[in-house]
Specification:
The protein is mainly alpha-helical. It has a single domain, classed as Up-down Bundle (Growth Hormone, Chain: A). It has 18 helices and no strands. The longest helix is centred in the middle third of the chain and has 35 residues. The radius of gyration is 19 Å and the shape is globular.
């Protein structure tokens, strides 16, 4: 079965559209926070809602091996529509903290049928060159994550609901594109009944375990960095007496990660996924340490540092996912990928709250703690 030339571009576009839901509320965080003035740590709580929903969703999809037992293409389409519906419910629940939390929890839950399943669709079509394909795919996730910020930047005169409506519509459109134009790949293996032993057995493989722990270290840094990008820009403006437009540069810095994913995807063809991922993680780990000196940087150096951090912080993600996929049992590849993704996203929750607590006490220096994840990942994955 020949791979159609349009396959990867369509999956990339659909992945971008679906994952635009991820930070839709973060882009209008200041507006929504005004409705909940007594809520401490509003930003970490709203970000955690999506992350926790994603963890629960990935555990559900993983436990029942849904993307292994049923068509990944259909799972993607239905999940994107359900995630968009939950996102739209923010329009009626935003004045209730509990309602807002549950709406975002639902978005995260059904995104478990978009992001990991998108990787599954690609792995079913790419017997070789998967690292490059996943580089573009995760790049689409990065652009989707950043997209609400650019919407906010260019729609300052429009109501905040505009961001929610546009991202929901995009997600539905992405699901339709996958459902209509993409088929399940020739390397897909349909699993039988769920075998709970696979959840334990996959970690007995040393190469799989090292790849997974490299990914876990990377995840300790990634989403907390993304959530704190607007906070870092605001802090720099205050400390250095600058006036950088926060939504615009937040979009640019987060979106630059798409370039990192594409670069590591191309470099993986020459260096291999392991070496490429390891060096990308090393660079982002160094950036964590350099953020300590934030107030003394010129605008130029600050932006260079932030863009390098934005590029490297996610460039290793598709390569670690490739290593996990390549070292997982072929019959339960989606189960293994989803399980590792679930654990990785769970790690983002304590990372968010720890960094927020340290930030309240020590300011921008708190972001250096994210380097701990990089150190763990570098040590764990040094040999695969």
């Amino acid at each position: 079965m020949k791979r159609p030339f349009y396959l990867l571009p369509l999956v990339v576009v659909a992945q971008f559209a679906g994952t635009s839901l991820w930070f839709a509320v973060n882009a209008v965080m200041q507006t929504l926070e005004a409705f909940h003035p007594q809520t401490l740590a509003f930003m970490p709580t709203m970000t955690t809602a999506v992350q926790l929903g994603f963890v629960l969703g990935t555990l559900f999809y993983s436990y029942f091996s849904i993307a292994d037992r049923f068509s990944p293409v259909r799972i993607f389409m239905v999940s994107a529509a359900l995630a968009a519906s939950c996102n739209l419910s923010v329009l009626v629940s935003y004045q209730s903290l509990e309602g807002l939390f549950m709406a975002r929890l639902g978005v995260g839950f059904f995104l478990a049928g978009v992001y990991p399943v998108g990787m599954k669709i690609c792995s079913d079509w790419y017997e070789t060159g998967l690292g490059k394909a996943l580089g573009y795919l995760v790049g689409a996730l990065v652009l989707g994550t950043a997209f609400p910020y650019i919407l906010k930047s260019f729609s300052l005169s429009l109501p905040w609901q505009y961001v929610i409506i546009v991202t929901s519509g995009l997600a539905v459109l992405g699901g339709i594109v996958i459902g209509v134009f993409v088929k399940d790949g020739p390397f897909r293996r349909v699993a039988g009944r769920f075998n709970p032993a696979v959840l334990q057995d996959v970690f007995k493989n040393k190469a799989f375990r090292r790849s997974a722990f490299g990914y876990f270290g990377h995840m300790f840094e990634l989403y907390t960095f993304w959530a704190f990008v607007p906070v870092l820009i605001t802090s720099y403006n205050q400390l250095a007496h600058q006036n950088l437009p926060v939504p615009l540069f937040a979009f640019g810095i987060i979106a630059s990660g798409a370039l990192g994913c594409v670069l590591t995807g191309e470099l993986s063809l020459r260096w291999g996924s392991h070496q490429t991922a390891w060096f990308s993680l090393l660079i982002s780990c160094i950036c964590c340490g350099l953020c300590v000196f934030l107030p003394v940087y010129s605008v130029f150096f600050f932006l260079v540092l932030m863009f390098i951090w934005g590029i490297s912080v996610v460039g290793d993600s598709p390569q670690f996912s490739t290593l996990v996929s390549q070292n997982a049992p072929s019959d339960y590849r989606a189960t293994a990928l989803t399980l590792v993704t679930s654990i990785g996203f769970f790690i983002t929750i304590p990372s968010l709250y720890l960094t927020q607590w340290l930030f309240n006490a020590y300011g921008h220096i708190a972001l250096a703690v994210l380097g701990l994840g990089g150190v763990v990942g570098l040590v764990a994955s040094r040999r695969i």
